[in-house]
Structure formats: C-alpha cells, structure tokens
Amino acid sequence: MASKHSKDITRRGFIKGTGVASLVLFIGGVPFLISACGETKQTIKIGLSTPSTGPAAEKGQVLEHGNKDAVRYINEEWGGVGGYPVELVWMDNGYNPSNMVNNVHKFMDSRCITFGCSSSAMMTAGMSAANQNGFTGLAVYGAPVIYRPPKHIYGQMPDYGDDFVVFAQYYKDNLWNGQGKPKVAMHLLNNSTGSGAHDGAKAKAAEMGFELIEPVYEHTASTTSETTSLNSIRSLNPDILYIASTPKPSSVIIKNANELGMTGGNMVIACGHAGMTKALVDLAGADVCEGVYGLFPTVNWDDDASGMEKLKEYCQRYHPSDYGNMDYIASWCQSLIMAKAAELAVESVGYEALAKGDGAAWKAYEDYGIKALNNYDVEGLQGPVSYTVGDNRMSKSLRVFQVQKGSINPVTDWIDAPLIEYEKYDWFGKQ
Amino acid sequence: MHLPAGIRNYTYAQDMAIFRTKTQWVMFGGLIVLLAVVPLLMGNYWLSIFNIIGITIIAAMGLNLLTGYCGQLSIGHAGFIAVGAYTSAILTGQYGVPFIIGMLGGGLIAGLTGVLFGIPSLRVKGFYLAISTIAAQFIIMWVISQWGSVTGGYIGLNVSPAEIFGFQFTSQLSKYYLIMGICVIAVFVAKNLARTRQGRAFVAVRDNDLAAQVMGISLFRYKLLAFFVGCFFAGISGALLAHCYYGFLNPEFFSFKESILYVGMIIIGGLGTTVGPIFGVVFVRLLERLISLELVPFLESTVTALPSGWASGVTPMLFGLVIVLFLILEPRGVAHRWQMFKNSYRLWPFSY
Amino acid sequence: MADLLQYTITGITVGMVYSLIAMGFVLIWKSSGVANLALGQLVLLFSWFTYGMLAQTGLPVWLGLVVVVAFALLLGWIIERFVLRPLIAQPILSLIAVTLGMAYFIEGLCTFIWPWGVDVLPRLFPQDPIRIGTAVVSQEYLWAAGVSLLLFGALSLYFKYSRMGIAMRATADDQMAVQACGIPVTRIFSRSWMFACVMAAVGGILMSSIGGISYGLVETGMKSFSVVILGGLDSFLGAIIAGPIIGLAENLAGGYLTAYTWPGVKEIIPFIIIIIVMFIKPYGLFGESRIERI
C-alpha cells in the first residue's frame, strides 16, 4: 500500500511540482531576463530599424551599414554626443510590418530617445505606436503619408512627391523650349514609392503648367519587361518619362525605352530618388543610362563636402562593398542628424533627464533636439537641416543629377521643394 | 483516447466532454490564470509580440478549419485578412460604426469574399485549388491598392483604436486582454465547431469528397461553409490587426509571402487538430522574433569579428534550418508530439 | 496593328521565360508529387552562384557554366538526400512545408554570401535588340525562348524514350507498384531533384542576364506557379504552352485595358483567365485527369 501510495504521489506530484516550478521560474524569469538587458554604462541610446533581410535587403543592408559606421564615427571623432557615447540599438525588420511594430516597442522599452527607420511602408507600420507615445522617429526615405498631418514622425529628406516638383521646376527652367504644356508620363512602382510621386504630380503638375498623362502606368518590383506599357506611352508622345521606383525595375524600364527608340529624341527620362543610385547604372548599363536625369537629396561620392573624407575612410574600413552607393550617404546623414539633435537636447535638458528614455525624455528630445535644429549643414553631405513649424521634413533640398559617361553627376545646386499640404486634398489620407 | 485508470464514462455527454478529469480542469484554470497574470510582468515589447501571436492564432484557426478539417488548401489567407482589416477600418472610420460591429462586419465580408473565391473548389481540388486562393490574394490586394477613394490606396488608411462601451484600447496591456479574450473565444468556437455535424462533414469531405457526396453530404454547402468560416476567422483577425496592432493600414502589410507562411504554420503545428495551429503559430512567430530581434543583435554585439551582412543572412537561414530540421524530426507537427507526450504522461511509469 | 505585333512578340517571349522556370516545378511534381515552394529561391541562388563563378572568380564563360551545372547537380542531390529522403512516406503537406523552410534557408544563404543584394552578370548575349517588322525584342529574350524550347524537347524525349524517364513517369503514377517492380524509387527522386536544380540554374542565368540579379527573381519564380497550374501540374507540354498564354494575357491586357481600368491590370488578368479555365478544365490545359474511386 505504501509503495502504491508513494508512486501515486510521485507521478501526480512530479507533474504538479514541475508545473508549479516552471510557472514560478517563468513568472520570475521574464522580468529578470528583461532587466538583465539593462546597461550600466552612460550612453545615449538610439534605435535603428532596417529591412536588412527580405525583399528590400539590397537597400536595407546598406542603410544598416551606413548608420552603424556613422555611429562609430560619432563616437570616435565627435567624442559621442555631449561627451556620452551613442549606443545604437539596431534591429532588423525584414520588411515585415509586424516585426516593425515589435521593433518600435523594443526601442521604447530599452529607453532609446528616438529611432530611425528607412522605408515608408515600415514607418507606416510602426508610426501609430510611436505617435501615440510621443516617441520621435526619423525616416530616411518616405512618402508624405508618414508626416502629413505632422505628428512625431519626421522625414530626413524631401519625399517622393517633392522629387517630382523639383524636377518639373528644373525642366521648365532649363530644358523646355517647346510650345504649350509639357506632357508628363509616369511609370510608378506599385507601392508608396510610386504613389508618393503620383501624389506630388496630382497636387502640383497642373499648377506648374504641366499636363499629367492619366492613367499613369504601374509596374511591380519583379518586372522583367515593360515594353508593352512603354509602347503605349510612346504613342502618347510625352516630353518627360518620370520613373518613381527602385533601381532594378527602373533599369528594366530604361532599357526597354532604349530598345523602343524612345531615348535620344526630345523625351527626357527622370528618376525619383529611390532609384537614382549606382545600382541603376550598373544594371542598365552606362551607355543605356546616358543622359538620364534623377534627383537625390544627398551629395555624390565624388563631391567635395567637408564630411566626405571621413565617410569614405569609414566606409573603406568597415564596409568597402558599399563604396559608391548613394544609400550609404543618406543613412550616414540619418545618424548624424539624430545624434546632432540628441546633442542639442543634452545641452538643453542634461544627460540625466534624456537618458531616462521615458515619455518626458522623448518630448525633450523632440522639443529641444529635433525642433531646435536650425540650418545644420550635416557636414555638407546633404541639404541643410532646419525645423519649420508644420513641416516635418527636416531638409527640403534636392539636387538634380544626370548620368554622364556612366557616372552620376550633379547638374544643379540645392533646390528647395515647397511644402505641399497634402491633407487639404480630398484624395489624400482617408481617415 | 487514453484515460487515466479508474475514470469511466457513464453517459455519452461524458464521453464527448473536452475536460474529463479534475487535473484537466486545474490545468485549464492554470492556463487561463497564466494568460491573465503573465502580461502584468512584461514590457510593451513582449506584449506586442504576444499580441501578434494572438491575432495570428485567430487567423490560423480559420485556416485550419478550411485546410486542416475540410481539406481545401488556401494560399491566400493574408488577402482575406486584409478584407477584414479594411472593412472594419472603413466601417468604423467612415461610417462611425462601433468597433464590435465593425469587427463582425469585417469577418462577414471576408467570409463572403472567401465564398466567392471558394466556388472553384466545387470543380477543382488539391494544389489546383491553390491557384484560386492565390488569385484571391492578388485580386484583393489589387482592388485595395487601386480603390483609393475608399481604401486610401497606396497612401494608406488611418485606423482608430478599438473602443468598447467608451473604453479605448490604447495601451499594449489593454490590447493584450482584448486580443486574448477574442482568441480564447475563437479557439473555443473552432474546437466545438469541429465536433458538430458540420465539423464531421468537413472531415468527411477532406478524407474523400466523392464518398462524402455519396453519403449525402452536400459538397456545395459544406465546402462553401468551410470557406465562409475559415475566412470569417481571418476577417476577425484582420480587424484586430487594424485596430489593435498597426493603427494604420497599407496594402504592403498583407503580402503573398505571409499567406504562404500561414500554410507553413498550420502544417508545422499539425493539421486537423485544435492545438496544432496554436503550437504552429507560437513556434513560427516566436522563432522569427527570437532569431531576428534577440539572437542576432546579441551575437552581433558580442562577436565583433563577423563579416558584414552576416547577421542579416543568418536570420532567415536559422529560421529555415529550424523548420527543416523540425519537420524531418517530427513530420506530423507539434500537435502529434504533444499527443505522444500526453499519452506517455497518462501511462507513466509504464510505457504502454 | 503595330501595337498588336509588339504585344504579341513581347508576350510570347516573356512567357517562354516563365515556362522555363515552370518546367523545373513540373519535373519535381511529376515524379514525387511535391510542390517545390523554394523554386524562386533556387533560381536566385544559382544566379548568384553564376555571378560568383563568372564575375568574382573570373572563370571563362564555358568553364564557369560547367561549374554552375555541376553545382546544381550536387545541390539537387544534397537536397533530396538530406532534406526530402527522411520524409518519404510522411504526409505530403509536410514535404511541401519542408521546401518552405528550405526557401528561407536559401534566401538567407544568398544574403550571407552576397550581402549587397543587387548585381549584374557579365554580358553573355549580344545587347542589340532585334527588329521584327515594327516590333522590337531584346536578344536575351530570344535566347531564353530558344533554350526553353530546347529543354522542353530534351525532357519530352527523355521521358518518352529513356529507361529512367519511363521509370520516373511510372513513379509518378504509383510509387508502391514501381517499388514492387524493383525500380529504385529513391534514385528517381534524387535524379528529378538534380534535373530540377539544373533547370533552375539555366532559368536563373537567363533571367538574370535579362534583368540583373535581385530579389525580384524570387517573385518571378512564384509567378511560374500560375503557369504550372494553368498548364497542368504534371505536363511539360502544359508548361511550355501556358507560359506564353500568361505572357500574352499580361501584355495584351497591359496594352489594351490599362486605359479603361485601374493601373496594374496586367498583373491580375492572368489569374482571372486561369480561374475561368479551371472551371472548364479542372486539371489544367494538359494535366492528367485522374479517375476517382471511393
């Protein structure tokens, strides 16, 4: 009897005991694990989320490297931010929106004072959580939807709509010598990159004296032939073919346009800043790309800017394969701007208040950091950065580039894009 | 089904009961308490991970009813989730409908869309049917992206937080309780649906639809019912995704890859069981996050001599490797292993 | 008329490239009933491997291509031996899920080795477009179309006349019966994976010389699913015919319908056609309809 009794207790008791023990361990362990991540070093924490894997990895990788190297540079050459080293809390979002939401919460939980993000699709996934908590975010590339109407998300650069407006202005002033209204055909990537440019055109083209050809044409990121759509565009005889896309589809379109004999005549091809990188020239071939215009919000690798030497040095040392990639410069600037704002905030409210990384610190960073930025030159690497009330684009400046003999050369100085108040148009941002 | 020694069934109801021993009730109570207590100890980051797991479980429950029980392979689940998300967001945002009704409306419209794309299932089956659901995914996403005047198109759509009787679910903790509450209801409904006449008809259709038809089961009715129910769950999950998770909708949130992953989740969990999808979802969603959000940043900060691009490549590699190894070691899914564990627990210390 | 000619030629040539990838899918399905979800990722991997051989190692083109084919054979063997063989006699959906895991693994491997994500192959084909009447077509497409016709011919003959090919068809029909006849089923699976990998490699080389190497290759690989299903999962003839049908549908719709509907209609039209075809021929255009018994 005794043995049966003890066996019975052993079996049930064992399971119950294990159950209770694991429960206790779990409940006790989770907070311990979370608290174990705490740091004792005095640092300024900045979050960074990049799509380093998945369908946008080609861009995400470079953006990750640029930011990481810039933080190395800030810590080594600036001596950190107001004397405190920057600690980058980097997370990969895999271009997966549900991951991005987790990333933003992770940044807030680990007491970051702000976060950087790259694409508008990811920013739209994360921005609701950030806006709700007053947590400031800076997006390197973006469509207007992320900061119209302005809240706590900022754009580092002009958006895809501004690209179009700036190019249209440049075209009117320098290239157009015909009669009547120049006709614009648009070839857009089927996401916010393409629609951003379309929005800009819808808002401003008529006002600026252009005729926007509707319907616009769309392509996917995996397109291998756009001969058909270009054939239709050719019959409409446009003066400008405006492509808002990433390098790979842009290269397919430019190649096909070339085959159809659309280039070389009066028609001008222009690319928005998501596509105007070295990869475009590599993919399409230098001869095919010759004369293509594009816009970009940073300087070029060959430009003579004060910060260029160090940027090249760090790129060569840590990520030589990114040398010559425009995204690297853009993301480098992203870290510089985030760190500069942090520096201003440290000066105003002190390290202790900021390093808490709570609601008050986020507000302090936004009010005394981001909003205090005034004509910061970002070491000459991109357009000057200032905050103006009601406009969450930190820099408003773009330059027009042209592919000349296989290299992408600037043909203008910085041109400021006017603020477009998209939310006033009834087609924008349904609530 | 093994029962502990000494427990006998005296009525049919007893035989059919889900919980038959005191220990099961205690365990179940413990689980509910655990679900209620654990979030109080977690930060928002972990809460947001639990929230996406809960939302995914609801959708996976639907897919399991459709694919696991009724045998209709669907590779367009993310599309149906999108229908629910957008319907609910538009109903609440533009027509001022309360959240609960918006959510049910989302489920209803998603279910009806499912029925529409399920019609080919009457003619085709197996992998051929998959094309109809793949088509559903692409056509739905195309309509959503282009119908800008209603859905916001590529620009996107702002979604208000969920609100029930004036209480706004804005904090992660409140969202967690809402999601888990609905998730528990969904699991309960799915478990019981599978035990009804309809559920048994689904299984009959899955095992051999010709035989089922001969026995008098209307294929037309039950296949479309399976599509309706499966997509209804997807719609509910979509509504939660819109109101309690993203707070914004963008067509890019509902990718084809996500649809494929849903099928992967229910296979890994174990098709045609109720616990299967739960295990599958927890396994896949946690694995995704543990690798890319915890392990890789940790390794990257501790081991400095790694080549560039290392961390980014390792995330999908590890994810894929674990799935492959797991399936090689346990091809019948986690649910099968769980069943083996339960049996051996009941028989312990004897082996059979 | 000039438009129609252009759309037709573009549609057919683009469609032939889809066919090429689709045949690799059919090969696996035909012998083992497994839907290979890693197809797009395999195409990506072989494109990068070709890049590694030709651009990075600098091998001469002929030698580089030989190495690529050898690697494809080896990888096919490895996949079958170590990933799919342990799952023989398990539920077929588990085998499909395993290819999904493989897809993630291969994707990660590509990022791991070639982290920059986008590049171009050295030019393998002449660049000048060819003019047919008023229409223009780039030479890479003609090459791709030629190669896929060639492979189709070779595969059809192989399956019709070679001992191994006949055994493969028999395996597809009834694995148990084939095993009972003393035909080594595992060797057949292994052989079909090796061939499928070679086809993915050829497809990858052709596609990446058209549009460069990038993640987009994976999505083009996925497009071949619709080609396969339209043609019939187990029919090479179906794949070679369904590809151009899809290509034509896309381009004709893109050319003539875009002005009347929303943009992007060309991505949707093929699916609508497929659903209609499914109603008339549930096993695809050329798929084998199985007689069901209770």
Question: How would you describe this protein?
Answer:
- The complex is a heterotrimer of chains A (431), B (352) and C (294).
- Chain A is α/β, with parallel strands linked by helices.
- Chain A has two domains: 44-158 and 301-395, 3-Layer(aba) Sandwich (Rossmann fold), CATH 3.40.50.2300; 160-296 and 418-424, Rossmann fold (3-Layer(aba) Sandwich), CATH 3.40.50.2300.
- Chain A has 14 helices and 14 strands.
- Chain A has helices at 2-36, 57-78, 97-109, 120-133, 160-175, 192-204, 227-236, 247-259, 278-284, 286-289, 308-318, 326-349, 351-355, 359-369; strands at 44-50, 86-92, 114-117, 137-139, 153-155, 183-189, 211-212, 217-219, 240-244, 268-271, 293-296, 397-404, 407-410, 415-416.
- In chain A, strands 6, 7, 8, 9, 10, 11, 12, 13 and 14 form a nine-stranded mixed sheet that branches. Chain A has a five-stranded parallel sheet with strand order 2-1-3-4-5, with helices on both faces.
- In chain A, helix 4 links the parallel strand 3 and strand 4 (137-139).
- In chain A, helix 2 crosses helix 11 (308-318), helix 2 packs across helix 12 and helix 5 packs across helix 6.
- Chain A is globular and about 75 Å long.
- Residues 1-9 of chain A have low confidence and may be disordered.
- Chain B has a domain at 42-256.
- Helices cover 72% and strands 2% of the residues of chain B.
- Chain B contains 15 helices and four strands.
- Chain B has a two-stranded antiparallel sheet. Chain B has a two-stranded antiparallel sheet with strand order 2-3.
- In chain B, a hairpin with a 2-residue loop joins strand 2 (163-164) and strand 3 (167-168).
- Chain B starts with 11 loop residues before the first helix and ends in a 5-residue tail after the last helix.
- Chain C is mainly alpha-helical.
- Chain C has a single domain (2-280), classed as Orthogonal Bundle (ABC transporter involved in vitamin B12 uptake, BtuC), CATH 1.10.3470.
- Chain C is built from eleven helices and two strands.
- Chain C has a two-stranded antiparallel ribbon with strand order 1-2.
- In chain C, strand 1 and strand 2 form a beta hairpin.
- The longest helix of chain C is centred in the first third of the chain and has 31 residues, at 2-32.
- Chain C is globular.
- The mean pLDDT of chain C is 86.
- At the A-B interface, helix 1, helix 2, strand 2, helix 3 and helix 4 of A face helix 2, helix 3, helix 7, strand 1 and helix 13 of B.
